[in-house]
Design goal:
The complex is a heterodimer of chains A (103) and B (505). Chain A has no helices and nine strands. A nine-stranded mixed β-sheet of chain B has the order 2-1-10-9-11-12-13-14-15, with helices on both faces. In chain B, strands 4-3-5-6 form a four-stranded parallel β-sheet. Chain B has a four-stranded antiparallel β-sheet with strand order 16-17-20-21. In chain B, helix 3 links the parallel strand 3 and strand 4. The chains are: A mainly beta (103), B alpha/beta (505).
Chain lengths: 103, 505
């Protein structure tokens, strides 16, 4: 899997999902989508690979996902059927606080 | 990380929604049209081998197109103030060559002749046929690349070029805007200049939320009111002088209410809002939510917001402290920290006046050629003076550089202005320090009387004497018809100061 660096993009090997890394404090973790390691956006997913049923809640465009210890935060830039996980632990959705419109 | 990604997401999620409409020319880009147009203009910029894209024109479709095309091409976007003189503009352009300049037709020849400047007209930039070679490949995702170079207004000395990197702008948007949160019927009226940080922020936050932007290139209260009604505008941002003119215009029309039922949200910022203006505005727009935003170029726009609920509570409050909240700029955004410090850098307590420091992902605090002025712990000294109350509401007191040093004592102009403004005959007030043989500096006040009212100088001195210490009493008072503000509502203190100095010579 490509290393995780802030600003970098990855895509799912098993669904349409794509993410951008917002903040990463450890580059050497395994980030999966749908239970399969995410790949470089220019890469090709494995033929016949599918979203694992335990990783199938999906990700929504514009939502941010974070690990429990906040060591990794990503932004979903394309929706997909797979869920994100780091070293097997599912990532959590982070809420954006609703603010008054100011610009 | 790249601001183009914000447009890519919007274009993917709602390609056929209108994104930007030029309120004067009536032209519109949908989100997918803007995305494809950016691909082509990035190709035009790249083909010239330019290292920057400069835009010297009023707001039009070329404004968002320039921002996104630059980001795609990987060159900083440099919006220039078209109100400057030709000499001033040429001096700024020299600092950003080799530049791809997009400007109004009448200025192409004047600036296209400069060394290292390739100039095209806005019309040519917007013409798809003249920009038919798309850029190869995607934009870079390096968060440290520069997205925007913004010349600060240079109220003191030569303008500085603030550096805003993709990480600062994207952090600001991700932290403050929910993706696709705007209903399809939302329309935002944008009248701040395109070379102002609020103009940049408006483009990005509207795109990310999916809102339709209506551009008003040259502000007038009459046109603002017309466009707001015509496009059923739901949200808008104005600087205090604009809101004052809108209020005046509506009052002159003799209406009790603005008759803009669609306007859910009206935000203001960029300068100090007079209490009388915001109070009248809240009466004229009874169903509109008001927000006050405070931010700087160096902080990628807004860092503090006084929201609608706080506005209503302040108006309804029966205590002086509660009412004073109405002139507060509110509380820090999530992810933004604020401290008030004294001259030695010590953090001050609630209520104490000092310099405002800010820290957060969206804070750049960097100038071209000077590097970052953010300290080792990430704090940026804003040079704005202020205080924070015990609930974290921030109050601005002018620029730290505006502090008057009289006989070794530091006096805040804002504190004296606030007292002068409580006088029933005073509409506006500016306090500056002027050279004084005995004290080093003396307090001088320029005051504007309310229509039909006359001001007694001694009364004003007595008022300050009774509210503050005697050192704060103005030694000089001038009655002016109006105070000098720049087009974004910043009081030009140096102009006030110069007038006092000139007279004493």
């Amino acid at each position: 899997m490509p290393t995780l660096k802030t600003g970098g993009r990855l895509k799912s090997a098993v669904c349409a999902g794509e993410i951008m890394v917002v903040a990463a404090s450890d580059a050497d973790v395994e980030l999966t989508c749908g239970g399969v390691a995410m790949i470089d956006p220019s890469g090709e997913g494995e033929a016949g690979a599918a979203v694992h049923p335990d990783h199938a809640v999906g990700i929504a465009m514009g939502k941010r996902y974070i690990t429990e210890d906040e060591s990794l935060e990503v932004l979903c830039v394309k929706a997909g059927d797979g869920s994100l996980a780091v070293n097997g632990q599912l990532m959590l959705q982070k809420d954006t606080k609703q603010l008054p419109k100011t610009d | 990380m790249n601001v183009m990604m914000l447009l890519e997401m919007a274009s993917g999620a709602f390609p056929d929604r209108p994104a930007f409409t030029d309120g004067e020319r009536g032209l519109t880009y949908t989100y997918s049209e803007l995305f494809e147009a950016a691909r082509l203009r990035a190709g035009s910029i790249a083909a010239q081998g330019s290292s920057r894209m400069a835009k010297l024109d009023v707001s039009n479709l070329g404004t968002p197109l320039g921002l996104f095309a630059s980001a795609w091409a990987g060159v900083p976007y440099v919006p220039l103030n078209y109100r400057l003189t030709d000499e001033e503009i040429a001096a700024l352009l020299k600092r950003v060559t080799p530049a791809y300049l997009v400007t109004s037709t009448d200025r192409v020849d004047a600036f296209g002749g400069l060394d290292g400047v390739h100039a095209v007209s806005t019309d040519a930039f917007l013409d798809a046929a003249q920009n038919a070679a798309p850029v190869a490949g995607e934009w870079a995702m390096d968060p440290d690349e520069i997205a925007v170079l913004l010349f600060t207004s240079g109220t003191t000395g030569e303008p500085k070029a603030a550096v805003l990197r993709h990480k600062h702008l994207v952090s600001y948007i991700l932290g403050s805007v929910e993706f696709a949160s705007a209903p399809e019927s939302d329309a935002s009226l944008v009248c701040v200049p395109p070379y102002h940080i609020a103009g940049i922020a408006a483009i990005m936050s509207s795109v990310y939320s999916g809102r339709h932007v209506i551009q008003l290139p040259n502000f007038s209260a009459e046109r603002w009111i017309e466009l707001a009604r015509q496009h059923k505008v739901t949200t808008a941002f104005v600087v205090p002088t604009m809101l004052a003119r809108i209020v005046q215009t509506l009052e002159a029309q003799g209406v009790a209410q603005a008759d803009m039922p669609y306007l859910n949200s009206l935000a203001y910022g960029g300068g100090k809002m007079p209490l009388s203006v915001i109070e009248k505005a809240m009466t004229l727009f009874p169903t509109t939510d008001f927000s006050n935003a405070y931010g700087l170029t160096e902080t990628s726009s807004t860092i503090c917001v006084l929201g609608p609920a706080a506005h209503r509570e302040a108006v309804a409050s029966t205590t002086a402290a509660g009412r004073r909240r109405l002139v507060s700029v509110g509380q820090a955004l999530p992810g933004v920290e604020i401290e008030i410090r004294d001259e030695e850098g010590r953090v001050l307590n609630a209520g104490e006046r000092g310099e405002i420091y800010v820290r957060g992902e969206q804070v750049s605090g960097e100038y071209e050629g000077k590097g970052s002025v953010v300290d080792a712990d990430g704090w940026f000294a804003t040079r704005d003076a202020g205080s924070m109350d015990d609930e974290g509401y921030l109050f601005l007191e002018g620029r730290a550089d505006d502090v008057i040093v009289r006989g070794g004592e530091n006096l805040s102009p804002g504190e004296i202005e606030d007292v002068l403004l409580t006088h029933p005959a005073v509409a506006d007030a500016a306090v500056v320090g002027v050279p004084d043989e005995q004290w080093g500096e003396a307090v001088a006040a320029a005051v504007v009387p309310k229509a039909g009212a006359s001001i007694d100088e001694q009364q004003l001195k007595d008022l300050v004497q009774s509210q503050l210490r005697s050192s704060r009493v103005p030694a000089h008072v001038k009655i002016w018809d109006e105070l000098p503000y720049n087009e974004t509502g910043k009081l030009l203190r140096r102009v006030v100061k110069a007038a006092f100095v000139e007279q004493s010579q």
